[in-house]
Design brief:
This protein is mostly helical. The chain contains 19 helices and twelve strands. Among the domains are: 118 residues, Rossmann fold (3-Layer(aba) Sandwich); 91 residues, Alpha-Beta Complex (Glutamyl-tRNA Synthetase, domain 3); 82 residues, Arc Repressor Mutant, subunit A (Orthogonal Bundle), CATH 1.10.10.350. The protein binds one RNA strand through helix 4, strand 7, helix 5, helix 6 and strand 12.
Length: 455
RNA sequence: GGUCCCUUCGUCUAACGGUUAGGACACCGCCCUUUCACGGCGGCAAUACGAGUUCGAAUCUCGUAGGGAUCACCA
């Protein structure tokens, strides 16, 4: 039987980092077993589900490049089949109508919390005699024995059936609850492996009862731990961005994000190598850790920086042009691309090259930093003299290099006497790629213009 | 509080019951160097605590402490 996994987010917000990692695990596992990875939007709570959220989930998945193998399924469109199962469960005596009102429930809940036992509805063994319509359908949980789940991540976990509460599967408005819908959809979709956050582990014991009542084949479970913030607490806004798509906006690459997320709780052979085929081959749920990992932006930065330097230059250029809405002539584009490898050595994210775009792409760029300008004023002649020499020189890195060195020797100077001012005149900055490269890539005309400018 | 799960350098983690407890990120130092980087070399740094089993425990058992998940007519 071939493997089918699913990522099942509820569209009540953007795609969370933790959710994204769950999706990645689902994707990886399915691919490893040459199966299918599906996405199901759990939008049964119509009040809280929004179109923006659905779009955000799309955007996030698309950015991470983990789009499902089949059309996305919307749970809200499957409610009929969920209700049908609820009725079947009722008819077969595995579920019952419960007429408890909210006040009665509140009291029961209070009691149950006190003595640590689940809520017991008095209607479990009573028949409907008043014929009224305000009921919910509850599942008749087994009260003896225990239920054990062989979880691919958590191992074998057992729980005494007496702690299972008679969960509601159909609300009083006849809509199915998540506890039912999820199980039915997984069955209908032929899901073989349920990989989800470990906040669902407790649900598994209850949901599996439906499967047992109906004699369905039990899927395999893998409950992966949640991701925590740097302080070990649940990831929230104050830890930084939790929306996966924000990391795109911050200049992280798809590959880096994928690499980082998948390594939170799982160890790859090579943490910086984004070779999807290799990753898929290596991936194993059994090796996923049981304890929650902390999100560490510094590690992400490191992976991103390395990925940026490995990545195809045209792709990086494309990302940069898109991010900064740059419209460049071919010559400027070429200049930027040529200097890119040097710039990328100095950044974690590609948006950090922001300050370098102007001096590279604007032909008549002139230093506009006041403090730096003052320095240049005194050195006008030096710049001109160097400019004169450069004008005579063959345009190669070697000859530019020897040209500069010759000047130093002739004037008995040190490189640090001309380096900083050259750099400021050419780039407007006090740090940049090495000067020979800068001069060479900027070209003779532009370099001379900047050196000969009257500051 | 009940139930379930977890605990190895600051962080992510590796280690058939036998390793000088390994790697990566971060940090520090040195080298390279015209700046900032990249790179190279090196350093700091961990088995939560306490018992037990064993010739031998990070690894198995129990207890303690700490952390997490969950306990809805949400998903």
């Amino acid at each position: 039987m071939s493997v089918i996994t699913r990522f099942a987010p509820s569209p009540t917000g953007f795609l969370h980092i933790g959710g994204a990692r769950t999706a990645i695990f689902n994707f990886l596992f399915a691919k490893k077993h040459k199966g299918k990875y599906l996405v199901r939007i759990e939008d049964t709570d119509l009040k809280r589900s929004t179109d923006e959220a659905i779009q955000a989930i799309h955007d996030g998945l698309e950015w991470l490049n983990i789009v499902p193998d089949e059309k996305i399924i919307y749970q809200s469109q499957e409610v009929k089949s969920h209700v049908k199962i609820a009725v079947e469960l009722l008819e077969k005596g595995f579920a019952y109508k419960c007429y408890l009102n909210s006040d009665e429930l509140k009291q029961l809940r209070f009691k149950s919390r006190e003595n640590g036992s689940p809520i017991k509805s008095p209607w479990r063994d009573k028949l409907n005699k008043n014929n009224d319509d305000s009921f919910v359908i509850r599942l008749k949980m087994p009260s003896k024995g225990k239920t054990t789940i062989r979880d691919l991540v958590q191992g074998e976990v057992s729980v005494n059936n007496e702690i299972l509460d008679d969960m509601i599967i159909l609300r009083s408005d006849r809509s199915p609850t998540y506890m039912l819908s999820s199980v039915v959809d997984d069955y209908n979709m032929g899901i073989t492996h349920i990989i989800r956050g470990d906040d669902h582990l407790n649900n598994a014991f209850r949901q599996v009862q439906i499967i047992k009542f109906l004699n369905w084949k039990e899927p395999s479970y893998a409950h992966v731990p949640l991701i925590h913030g740097s302080d070990g607490l649940k990831l929230s806004k104050r830890h930084g961005a939790t929306n996966i798509f924000d990391y795109h906006k911050m200049g992280y690459t798809t590959e880096a994000m994928f690499l980082y997320l998948m390594q939170l709780g799982w160890t790859a052979n090579n943490e910086n190598d984004f070779d999807l085929d290799k990753i898929i081959k290596e991936f194993s749920l059994e090796k996923v850790n049981k304890s929650p990992a902390r999100f560490d932006i510094k590690k992400l930065n490191s992976i991103n920086s390395k990925n940026l330097r490995q990545k195809d230059l045209d792709e990086v250029l494309e990302l940069i042009m898109k991010h900064f809405s740059l419209k460049l002539e071919n010559i400027q584009k070429y200049r930027l691309k040529s200097l890119l490898p040097e710039l990328l050595k100095r950044t974690n994210t590609y948006i950090e090259i922001k300050d370098d775009i102007e001096w590279i792409t604007i032909d008549d760029f002139i230093c506009n930093n006041k403090d730096n300008l003052l320095i240049l004023k005194d050195k006008n002649t030096t710049l001109k003299e160097i400019g004169f020499l450069l004008n005579e020189c063959i345009w190669s890195k070697d000859s530019i290099d020897s040209c500069l060195k010759k000047y130093i020797i002739d004037k008995s100077l040190k490189f640090k006497d001309i380096g900083p001012i050259l750099r400021i005149a050419l780039t407007g900055k006090t740090s940049s790629p090495d000067l020979v490269t800068v001069i060479y890539e900027l070209g003779c005309t532009i370099s001379l213009n900047r050196l000969n400018y009257k500051y």
